[in-house]
Amino acid sequence: MSEQMLEGVAINPTLTVKDVRKSFGSFEVLRGIDLEINLGEVVCVIGPSGSGKSTFLRCINQLETIDGGAIWINGELVGYRRAGNRLLELSEHEIARQRLSTGMVFQRFNLFPHMTALQNVTEGPVQVLKVSRKEAEDYGRELLDSVGLAHKCDAYPVELSGGQQQRVAIARALAMKPTLMLFDEPTSALDPELVGEVLSVMRSLAESGTTMVVVTHELGFAREVAGRVLFMDGGLIVESGPPKQVLGSPTQARTREFISAVLS
Ligand code: ADP
Ligand code: MG
Questions:
Q1: Which of 59, 190, 197, 223 maximizes the CB count within 10 A of its CB?
Q2: Residues 154-211: tens digit of each pLDDT
Q3: Does the beta carbon of 50 sit less than 6 angstroms from any atom of ligand 1?
């Protein structure tokens, strides 16, 4: 076990989610989510469309506020601070700071179109983290190299395939040195022949100890890479466990139905 892991284990889980609830109007999208993720864990989330998977990631990343329960990242309460026995909402500024602890990769890559791959990766560190341009570029090149794009540093998004753009998006998220990486169906918008290159980058990240929550329909990836698989349905985690169990011999009928629908 590395020193970093020892520190992490000794302090807090990387992510703690307790009874999280979220409604849009009268529709309760998340109906009490509980989850704990430790440093270096890779958790894949599967489930039908509309089950609340994206909303859940967006709550962790504070793109949505929650209506009940609480979320901690590295032991720090997300979105609120305690004042005596009351909880006060954090300011926009404090939320922006907290949001840096998660790196999010979406289905659509959302790169800045007028910036090269390297500029996309260095923009955040330079503007937000106030890292020197030299340092940001050195690390940016290293990251682009690690996602197989050392030769594309100077290319603009329009000159890159969807798979390459998504790999730049991953490098861009990593450049902010997040505690936790969140992936929301990162390969769903890609042509089938480009899915593999993105999954292989994610696999390397997982192997290098990155703490990751991955919403995906790629059950093969989940089986091979995840330490744990969660099946969500109707705003609840219906079933969770090692991939072999959840994907191979699920206990819940809904999980079985979903898996056979995805595989057919
Ligand atoms: P999933 O990612 O599992 O497909 P989502 O989290 O995107 O599910 O959505 C869960 C449910 O919440 C869906 O019924 C969706 O229509 C609804 N929903 C998501 N975002 C909003 C929003 N901003 N306003 C209203 N309803 C929303
Ligand atoms: Mg979604």
A1: 59
A2: 999 999 999 999 999 999 999 999 999 999 999 999 999 999 999 999 999 999 999 9
A3: yes
In angstroms, the CA 155 to CA 242 distance is: 40
Question: How many helices (H) and strands (E) in the chain?
Answer: 10, 12
Pocket flag, ligand 1, residue 162 (CB < 6 Å): no
Q: Is 230 in the pocket of ligand 1 (CB under 6 A)?
A: no
Q: Is the CB of 30 under 6 A from ligand 1?
A: no
Mutational pocket test of ligand 1: of 20, 22, 24, 182, the residue with most ligand atoms within 8 Å of the beta carbon: 24
What is the residue whose two structure tokens read 């595989």? 263
pTM > 0.70: yes or no = yes
Instruction: Using only the alpha carbons of the chain, give its radius of gyration.
Output: 19
**87, pLDDT greater than 90:** no
Query: How far, in Å, CA of 240 to CA of 248, rounded?
Result: 12
Residue partners of 236: CB distance under 8 A and separation at least 6? 31, 32, 33
Higher pLDDT, 110 or 220: 220
